[in-house]
Amino acid sequence: MSIAKALQEWLQSIPKLQMQKRSEQWLQLLCPAEQLPELTRHLVEDEEAEFATLLVEESAKEDALSVHYLFYLPSTGNLIELKVEAPAGTELPAISDTVHAADWHEREAWDLYGLRFSGHPFLGDFVLHDDDWPEGLDPMRRSFDGKHRPDLHGSGVDWAPPRLLQEEGAMVFPVGPVWGDFNESGLWLLETPGEQIRYLHTRLFYKYRGVEKIAEGRTVDQGLLLAERFAGASAFAHAWAYCQALEQIAACQVPTRAQQLRIVFAELERIRHHAANIAEIAGSTALSVAKALAQGIVEDLLRLSAQLCGHRYFFGVLTPGGLREDLDESKLKLIKQTLPELDQRMQLLEKQLESSSSFLDRIEEMGTLDNELARIYGVVGPIARASGRSIDLRRNLPYGQYVFLSPDIPVEQEGDGYARLRIFFAESRISVKIILELLPFMAEGPVQSPCPIQEGHALSWVEAPSGATFHWLRCTGDGTITRLRLGTPGFRNWHAFERAIEGAAFQDFPIILATWGLSIAENDR
Amino acid sequence: MSFWPYYGLQRGITTTSWPDGAEDSAGITPGRPRARPTERAEEIAAVCPTQALKVVRQDGTDGVAVDFSRCIHCQRCRQGENALPWTTDFSWGAPSTSAQSTLGSRFTRSLQVLYVDAGACGACVNEVRLIDAPPYNLHRLGIFVTATPRDADVLLVAGPITDAMRTAISKAYAAMPEPKRVMGMGTCAINGGVFGESFACAGGLEKIVPVDLWLPGCPPPPLAIIHGLLSLVGRVAPAALEEQP
User: Fold this and answer.
1) Subunit contact B29:A306, Cβ cutoff 8 A
2) Judged by CB atoms within 8 Å, which residues 95-134 of A form the interface with B?
3) Which residues is A19 bridged to in the sheet?
4) Would you call B95 helix, strand, or coil by DSSP?
5) CA distance B224 to A424
6) Which of B4, B37, B108, B194 is the most buried (most CB within 10 A)?
7) CB contact (8 A) between residue B218 and residue A229
């Protein structure tokens, strides 16, 4: 598909803009920094482009950075890349006032690269916590040795939670980083005059493992281990995106059977991810039987996964060029036998939950993210689709065999906890349907084709269970990674989370958190 | 009006009888490779991306030893012509070199566990969440989960120990009453796993607090976690971290 004429003409009318077609689908614009705000505003507001991710790369030249703003057009499936060169010491204009989805990306680039964005109101204390990390040390820079912990430690400033609320009796109530029974680490600061939460300040990155940094210098094979194991709940999706990038670089054609099996695994992972979220939602409202029933489904799906590929979380299944192992007839039959029964249990659970008025009271009109906010924050995945945004990379930017499948994309309008619950159920149902409809048409043949290592770079994407994920990979001819960018759905959606809390009552916080079902590992990387 | 108690009863009992009875349902564990004598030890060890397989020579015969603290079940040694045999066991909890004695009979009916996530990917968290789900039902064994270190007997830590979680782990450990035990869960907690030691990760729980029990696996399945907890009390026999051919 080609880019709309009107957009092309508009772009040509801008002086000093160099256009370059990277492929039929991908348009690269080399643009001067001062034109960034206007260009990005036009793309997002007039062309309804979606922000994909921000990629910073250090060029070979001393300290210079090249900054790529990646967008895609959901209506035509085109990618638009704005590339800006930033020599040492440059400040780029912040685009987050018009493209709010880029807000956290700019904060991240400041923390990790020391790239300053003029006009950004909140730079600092984000990925690297001020009380823990020395000031002025940028870990993603090539000159920084990522193998060791820096000797110098802490900025010497005691970190204090930010306070907006200036009322008598107002307080900040901290939740985390170690909290509740079995939870991921993160800190939530609830500002309240007593009962109602007025503001929430989310402080994440307690789990920052520097995956993008430690990947540099490793081989592409070791990189695959990182890509599949940094976010275990959607391991297959991330490993798939990573393998796609390598396959693109090598111009490798993945055999049809492997393409189809990848869909089977990815959709199984989606069902399990959603079922685990449903279990947490039921648990957060103290509905223990419903939680137990959902957990039973999760466990049975994990056992099914292990029987299919040997691992409960699909670790080690993917390899660049296809799959490590084929599924024989008996395993395909096992899916055919197991899935309908699991689907029935899911549907029964949905019916039971929908007839529990006390449960619905806790999630209806709770943690609402309306359509306008969802658009401004550019949320992705089930969260976006529960707020009336019909975007799914499987349809809008199809990859692999999804080109031929065009799966149904459920959309709800309310944006509240109940809408998200319905989306989780609806998507699992559709995933079951996709798998069962695909199985009779499995192609014969190998599941692996050679994927030689070559120098190059590629952008790839997958609709992970939690939403759109974009991976950027650059490697040398001997298979060493020089840049791995993980643009994850968790990083996008956590950004908007605090807006859904405002105005909620204290005891609703864990429930709203559960209905969002966000992974911190995926955010922190 | 809803009928949740009825819905629950309708589903019947799904809980395993382990450790009293045997448990061999398909898919409860990813399994792991077994050490064995073989002439092709070099070739076999070369497929392992994490150096969990080691070539050993004893009395003139070659063999492959397995270091479970490094194994991440990537399955590369399970496939191909040189495949190693894989077990389907889950009794993986192994005492550390600095292990204290087992907690003993006073804790067999009430063991309180505090879970701290120090950078785990989400698979460990998910497996931990399942240990008190009906298929495994932790409570039947007198083990409970607590949200506060003041009540905790066992500190269960997963993840490669990120920089920002160091303080939280030390504080939680200090706040626990004696006697207390520490269990490092997953390959990441033992040596950093695929993340290793870096500017962001300590790469090993032992660098922050003393550890009594290691639970290898990526991730260890629910029954392995239960095995680890039971062996801290001395109710089951612990395993070893290495296997020689």
Assistant:
1) yes
2) 129, 132-133
3) A29
4) strand
5) 30
6) B194
7) yes
Residue of B nearest to A316 (CA): B74
What is the value of ipTM here, to two decimals? 0.94
Q: How far is CA A318 from CA A322, A326, A439, B76, in A?
A: 6, 11, 19, 11
Token digits of residue A470: 């974009």
pLDDT 10s digits, B182-219: 999 999 999 999 999 999 999 899 999 999 999 999 99
Token readout for A122 is 């909140």
Please name the residue that has the structure tokens 């099996």.
Answer: A261
* pLDDT, tens only, B65-80: 999 999 999 888 888 8
Residue A369 — very low, low, confident or very high, per pLDDT cuts 50/70/90?
Answer: very high
Contact A524 B119 (CB under 8 A): yes
Amino acid found at B76? R
pLDDT in tens, A41-74: 888 888 889 999 999 998 877 778 899 999 999 8
Query: pLDDT, tens digit, for every residue of B52-107?
Result: 999 888 777 888 899 999 999 988 888 888 888 899 899 999 999 888 888 888 88
Q: Contact A235/B124 with Cβ under 8 angstroms?
A: no
Chain A residues 11-40 with CB within 8 Å of chain B? none
Mean pLDDT of chain A: 90
CB-based contacts of A205: which residues, under 8 Å, 6+ apart?
A126, A127, A128, A129, A523, A524, B164
Q: Do A310 and B147 touch (CB under 8 A)?
A: no
pLDDT digits (tens, 9 = 90+) for B124-164: 999 999 998 999 999 999 999 998 999 999 999 999 999 88
Residues whose CB falls within 8 Å of the CB of residue B101, separated by 6 or more in sequence, listed in order: none
What is the distance between the alpha carbons of residues A165 and B24, in angstroms, rounded to a whole number? 57
Residue owning tokens 């109940």? A418
Contact A147 B199 (CB under 8 A): yes
- Give A 143-172 residues with CB within 8 A of chain B: 144-150
CA-based torsion, B162, B168, B172, B174: positive or negative: positive
Q: CA end-to-end span of chain A, whole Å?
A: 34
CB count in 10 Å sphere of residue B57: 9
B 225-244: CB under 8 A from A: none
Distance set, CA A214 to CA A129, A145, A482, B202 (Å): 19, 10, 10, 13
pTM: 0.93
Q: Which residue has the tokens 């449903």?
A: A278
Burial class (CB within 10 angstroms; exposed 0-12, middle 13-18, buried 19+) of A70: buried
**Closest partner CB to B165 (pick from A185, A298, A306):** A185
